[in-house]
Amino acid sequence: MFIRAPPQRFLRLKIFVFLSAICIFSLTGTYMFASYIDTASKNRNYLTLGFHHVYVVSERTHESRRREMARLMRFQGILFGFYPATSPRDIDDPGSYTHWVGEDHWTRPMANHTESPELLAHFRTHMNVINDVVRLRLPSALVLADDVDLELDAKQQMHAVVEALPTTWEILFLARCGPPETSASLPLLPSSHDRLFVASGAPACSFAYALTYQAAYRLRRVLNNMWPSPQRSFDHVLGDMIRPLYMEAYAIEPPLVAKAVSAAAAAAAAAATASPLYSLHNSTLLRLGHTI
Question: Does the reported pTM lie above 0.90?
C-alpha cells in the first residue's frame, strides 16, 4: 500500500533546496565579483605605471604639447589626466586667473615680490598637485610635465621598479637633472631592482616624480609655510627635504623619463648647467616619428 507523504514535508524540502541554491549562487557571485575587482584594480595599476593616478601638468596655452603628450601616452597605453599648471601670467595678473573646480583659493604673492614669476608659478603648480593628492587621499601618484619622453619599455620597467620599492618609500624620481645617482649612492639592496638607487638629495627633477599620500601630506605642510614668498625653487626645496633623510626617496638610474628637447636646446642647457641633459636609449617620441 502506497503511503503519500504529508504536503508540508514536500514544502519544507522545496524551501530548503531553494535557500541552498540562493546561498550557493550568492557565495559564487561574491567570489567572482571580488576576483573581478582585484583583477580590475591590478589592470588599472598596470595602466598607471603602478601608481593610483598619473598627473600631466600643462599650462592652458600648451595645446600642441598636450596633443603630443596624449599621443605618446596613448601609444604607451597609460591612463592619465591633464592638470592645469599655474603660469607666470597667473602670478603677475591674478585678475585673469580662473580657478578650476575643487581648487583651493590660494593667497596671491605681493605685487612687489622679488621672486621671478616663473619660479612662483612652478612652485604653486606643484603645491596644487600635492594638495590634490591629499584632498583625494590617493595612496600614490605620478607627476609628469607636458614635455617629456619615455623609454619604449617604460611600463614594464616601472612595474618591476615599483614592486622592488620598500613599503616605506615616499618619493621616487624617474628622471635625472644632474650627475647619475650611482655616483653618490649605492643600490638599495643586492636583491633589489638593478635600476633602483637611493636618491642623493641633489636638486630634484620635478618634471617626473612619484610620491605617496604620506609624502604629499608632509610636503603640503612645508610648502604652505613657505608660500607666498618661497626663497627657493620647488626642485631645491624637495632636494633639501631629502638630503637630511627627512623623506625616504629613491631614483631610477638610468632614467625612464627625459625632457623632450631639441639638440640645440639640450646643448644650451648643458652649457648653462654644466650637466648635459639625459637622452633615452629607446625614445617613444622617436618611434612615433617625432623629430626631437
Answer: no
